Amino acid sequence: MTVTDTPRTSVPHAAAPAPALTPVRELLPRTYHVRTLGCQMNVHDSEHMAGLLEQAGYRRAEDVPEVAARATAAGDGGADVVIINTCSVRENAATRLFGNLGQLAAVKRERPGMQIAVAGCLAQQMGEGIVEKAPWVDVVFGTHNIDVLPALLDRARHNAEAAVEIEESLKVFPSTLPTRRESAYAAWVSIAVGCNNTCTFCIVPSLRGKQRDRRPGDVLAEVEAVAAQGAIEVTLLGQNVNSYGVGFGERGAFAGLLRAAGNVDGIERVRFTSPHPAAFTDDVIDAMADTPTVMPSLHMPLQSGSDRVLRAMRRSYRTRRFLDILERVRDRMPQAAITTDLIVGFPGETEADFQATLDVVEQARFASAFTFEFSPRPGTPAAGMPDQVPLEVVKERYARLDELVRRITREENERQEGRTVEILVAEGEGRRDQATARISGRADDNRLVHAALPVGLAADDYAAGAPRPGDMLTVRVTHGAPHNLIADSARCGTGAGGALAADSVRSAGDRIWTDDGPALFEVRRTRAGDAWERRRREAHAEPEPDAAPVAIGMPMIRPGAHGPR
Contact 195/208 with Cβ under 8 angstroms? Predict the structure, then answer.
């Protein structure tokens, strides 16, 4: 269904033609700010939205100081155009969206010409219903028509009424769209969109459609292109990556793609998400183990440890198969960190079913787990199932599961103490880095590592040897914390470490954790760090007159770059 330019006589639309702008304001570019809720697919979709807007001449609000300075607590970023990319998985998704829109309405009243757009899974699901509840919204578009965003903004501004456009099926494969990647050193690369599974709790297949695979050559061309731009890590994205190849009739296509991506010149780390236990095969394990650049990390959603509940969920595997996969992965890659998803309180779940989940979690020894209380999503079979578990029971079980997961995560992290790790330094991974004089990044197994800086070295003193985001840092894990690893080996061997580690006055997060080993803080400069530094300079440079602010779009392929088609 496509709905556009629906007249609104009963509820006047809040968007009126912008008044004449002052000469000072005319000097500023039109700006945007994207807020992303939900999964990695949404994150990558937001990168496409940003790319489309930058191709149309918009700039990120945070790159224009005069605009960023007017940002409010409503999360608008100070921008002229605010896009909320929504998720529909959680029960309170709509409540959260309209709460955010209510806050933005107040900002819009004080900012002439401001536009608000709603995208993503909830937009695909609700369509016109969003504007009916929040008539100050200018644009609503779904998961299947990201490409129309600039045109819809222009249409809404010209007509002074909301533009709503929802396509029932994918018209343009998102990966062909311009992309403004959030990171200069790590890139999402989509290998498929949609899902062919029929899990009874999941709304995603009905919102993103049936699975559509990209050709391997197209995927590898994009991997080669982002590598040419400086990225050294790629994550291959799909709702069910193990089913990759079904669309073009090639069994084992995903294992082959992993090997090929891992051999692209310049790529040092390959990750993927998400696999499905029912389709996970040994050739993928072999590809992971045999390809040094494919990282020893695996996110394998369990959902429940009860075979009876798995059957009701329509998950086409049982716990024995799941545990067998973990055993085979660890046999080939003993250092692998395995994470999972778990749902508590699925309809009909008994205490015995829940205990089965606890038993499997104890046996599996996950590095971490994302735990969820079951929330019925309208339009899913599970929403209408009998024997819905009372909320108080769900919450009590959730608390027990959470306690178990936290204990195992802490124990598994403590087992990492003394291990030497190479981390890819990243922006935004450590919220307390400035206060604790640390920098943060991910180890090869995707564990989050906070590493202490040597005494006297500032995190932003790159000339003095501080690693830039995108550079590699070798350190030793000195403490396994409940949710991350601490690597304060830069402070070891100074004579003061033991006293600091035993200092009961400091909280665990603020403490310096040292061990008896020598100091270790080795920085490896990378072209990804160069790319980050180059992007930072470009973001603060003034655009040339009459030119697009940033060159954007599909990266140019290096001469001679090719892959199987």
Answer: yes
